[in-house]
Amino acid sequence: MGKIARHPNPGTVLGAIGAGLGLVALIVSLSSSAGAVSRQSHALVRRGDLAPGAVTAKALAKGAVHAKALAGKAVHPKALAKGAVTPAALADDAVTAAAIAPGSVYGGALGTVTRHTAPIVDTDESPSPGSWTASESPAALCATGERLLSGGIVFTNPGNREVGVLEVLPFADGNASGVLGRITSNSAGSAAAEVVALCLK
Prior knowledge:
Elements: H1 10-41, H2 107-110, E1 113-121, E2 133-134, E3 139-141, E4 147-157, E5 163-172, E6 177-185, E7 192-200
Antiparallel strand pairs: 1-7, 2-6, 3-6, 4-7, 5-6
């Protein structure tokens, strides 16, 4: 007796087709998700994507910002907030000669330079030749909070031109800084000079 051929039940066939389509959909879905994650992981964060003040020092991991992480010329004076760079913000030995560009440190970059003077009186009283007399030693002082840069003596009136400089002495202590000046004269009191201190605000 011959075997009777049995045809698959239509429900079984449709179920198998549905399972296959479901598997294909799952594979496509996982592939799309992986592609999206890959694209997101390589996305660039641009300046316009960040809210003002979103990135602060506390939000950065230690060592996250270093020389190789910065684009060329990314850090320049206009990119820094006023007062952003202070001694406490600099690592030990961070500022060395090699780290400073040629010509980047000059008078105008340091701050306002002020000029302070004090008169030096010609104390020579004798008109006789050879009666050279030394003056007192007045001081040109920097204002409170200023630092001395340099100083000197200038003759505002040389008298009979028989004058000379005896002393130009910069000084600084915990309370004051400035320049002491002293001259000598054989001008019978006709000369005048002043000691000058250039100070940094």
